[in-house]
Design goal:
Elements (H helix, E strand, L loop, with lengths): L3 E3 L6 E2 L2 E2 L5 E3 L7 E6 L14 H10 L4 E3 L6 E3 L2 E6 L5 E6 L13 H12 L17 H5 L11 E5 L2 E5 L7 H5 L29 E6 L3 E6 L13 E6 L3 H9 L2 E6 L10 H4 L2 E14 L9 H9 L3 H4 L7 E2 L21 H10 L11 E6 L4 H13 L4 E6 L4 H5 L6 E7 L6 H4 L16 H12 L2 H17 L3 E12 L5 E2 L15 E2 L1 H10 L17
Parallel strand pairs: 5-14, 18-19
Antiparallel strand pairs: 1-20, 2-3, 4-15, 6-7, 8-9, 9-11, 10-11, 12-13, 13-14, 15-21, 16-20, 16-21, 17-21, 22-23
Helix pairs in contact: 7-9, 13-14
């Protein structure tokens, strides 16, 4: 989300649970009509063209809506701004029929041409939208995104009428509707197009079930959009985003029942009372944490150098179950019928040294200093990596520690050798992990460029069934064996929420929870208020089957 990402060189382990950045749940005000989400203080982005963190994506489910959206339980694509759609017999032409009552928050109608304009803006090279690569399945989209053509009429997106949008694909793509669930592919009101930093302001025009009404450094208030086509089904009147960068403060508010939803990373686990701890809902995710090299400059543009350095690392220790719930050497989590993929599974110092010598760097002599980018306090894996390289190579290894709030910006500078990432897929398909590494993708933080890799992904679009999976597995294996990406583990989400008092929220492998479905059960809330204390604890929900 999906795509949604968090970064750190090591996952935090608290009382046997991996902490995961996120949201909070709290006791409500206004007789259960306001849902309170606790967030670590951070720089939220409400511009769907550039939203890419898990927090941004989650909140944008309240503010914007595309042609289709996620079902809250199955995550399948369900009708949203489009009431229905038709697919041609050859599965390359999708015709979407917009709702007659699809409106923005100021009452203006949503048109097919506004969807077309928004998609073209995402694809415009000047926009540098992070998720533009996912629209490459559309006819002419890749060439337009890459600046090979400047004519928007060459892109297979056409407004047939005010309420009919036609999208033509290069080839059949079974994952296309899932891609359209992403918050990045939504219509923007014309008033936003020439308004700088509109998403930092209050009262901008949106098309989702809620709109931003108030904001300050501590809170953001979202109120119900009365013009939303499905407003009658939205059970809460408002959402209050509680912003706090102090886990102690957040923990106290959770204990007091003032927060309706959060994750462990926003809190201090040791400060949570027993009732709060019993509201932890764990579930496995379609997500992977990994190290990655910057691949665009010598000598690290040489796969032999990257692989040689990677083979010297102590993978048994890095992937130890002491630090990881689901250690792995593969990028894509297990999917039924997806082929086994072999990456770098164990340390092999002699092979690593041989590769480096063959590449012209015997025992690492001549390599420039290796810079490891990490967030402050997350040094465990970095220490392991540095120790292995210093013991076996004649190379300088240095750390660059960055405050967590500035880490995304630092990642985008690409002025380091190695860093880490956690990628949570935005849709349940291998492409959600693989397409990001194609040449020129704005999600490609490794700056990897390999025509053979791009070709395999291109060929996968023409394939179906097991043949498609085989092509994708070949691409993944190439990525892993060239040591672009070095997986550490698959992860789990740990949300704090009382499932007995909150309806419409379901644990799922993408950890996406569309906010239009949230409902607060008044009976339970009233009971809490009468008791005058912390609400009774709900039991832990079972893990969902893993897909993200």
């Amino acid at each position: 989300m999906r795509n949604r990402k968090t970064i750190g060189i090591v996952l935090l382990v608290l009382a046997g649970c991996v902490a995961w950045p996120g949201f909070i749940i709290a006791q409500n005000d206004d007789q259960g009509k306001t849902f309170v989400i606790g967030l670590s203080d951070q720089d939220l982005t409400f511009n769907p063209l550039h939203a890419h963190t898990s927090t941004d994506v989650q909140i944008l489910t309240a503010l914007f809506e595309g042609l289709v959206s996620y079902h809250p339980f199955t995550l399948e694509a369900v009708p949203a701004a489009a009431a229905s759609w038709d697919v041609s017999d050859d599965k390359t032409v999708y015709t979407f029929h917009l709702r007659d009552n699809a409106r923005y928050s100021n009452g203006d109608p949503i048109t097919a041409n506004q969807f077309r304009d928004a998609f073209l803006q995402v694809l415009n090279p000047k926009e540098a939208a992070e998720y533009a690569v996912y629209l490459d399945v559309i006819k002419g989209a890749a060439a337009y995104r890459q600046g090979k053509t400047k004519d928007p009429s060459t892109v297979g997106i056409r407004a047939v009428s005010d309420t009919t949008l036609e999208i033509t694909l290069e080839k059949p793509a079974g994952h296309f509707l899932k891609v359209l669930c992403l918050c990045n592919f939504v219509p923007l009101h014309p008033s936003l197009r020439n308004s700088p930093d509109w998403d930092r302001k209050t009262g901008f025009v949106a098309n989702g079930p809620f709109q931003v009404s108030k904001r300050d450094k501590n809170e953001i208030l979202l109120t119900k959009n009365k013009y939303y086509w499905d407003a009658d089904s939205v059970k809460i009147d408002s959402i209050r985003l509680r912003l706090a960068d102090d886990p102690k403060v957040m923990s106290q508010e959770v204990n007091a029942g003032k927060i309706n939803w959060t994750t462990l990373q926003a809190c201090n686990y040791s400060l949570l009372n027993a009732q709060a701890r019993e509201k932890i809902v764990p579930n496995t995710m379609f997500a992977t944490s990994f190290l990655f090299f910057i691949c665009d400059k010598k000598p690290y543009s040489d796969p032999a150098v990257r692989r040689g350095l990677a083979l010297i690392l102590p993978w048994k220790d890095i992937r130890s179950r002491q630090y990881s719930l689901y250690p792995t050497s593969r990028l894509i989590p297990q999917i039924p019928k997806y082929p086994d993929v072999k990456g770098i599974a164990e340390q092999n110092v002699s092979e690593g040294l041989a590769l480096l010598e063959k590449a012209g760097y015997p025992k690492g002599k001549g390599l420039p200093p290796v810079s490891i980018l990490i967030s402050k306090g997350n040094t465990l894996f970095a220490d392991m990596i540095a120790k292995a390289w210093k013991e076996n190579l004649q190379v300088e290894v240095k750390f660059e520690e960055i405050d967590g709030k500035d880490f995304f910006t630092a990642i985008g500078r690409h002025d380091y050798t190695l860093s880490s990432y956690t990628w949570i897929a935005d849709f349940a398909d291998p492409l959600a992990f693989l397409q990001m590494w194609t040449t020129g993708s704005k999600l490609n933080e490794a700056l990897y460029a390999n025509p053979a890799y791009d070709a395999l992904l291109g060929e996968s679009l023409s394939a179906t069934g097991l043949d498609r999976y085989k092509k994708l597995a070949q691409a993944e294996e190439l990525l892993l064996n060239e040591a672009v990406v070095l997986p550490i583990d698959h992860i789990a989400a740990f949300n704090l929420i009382d499932s007995e008092s909150i309806a419409g929220w379901y644990p799922n492998p993408l950890d996406i929870h569309p906010l239009k479905y949230i409902e607060i059960k008044k009976e339970r809330l009233n009971k809490w208020i009468v008791r005058g204390g912390v609400p009774p604890a709900a039991g832990l929900q079972a893990d969902t089957p893993r897909s993200e």
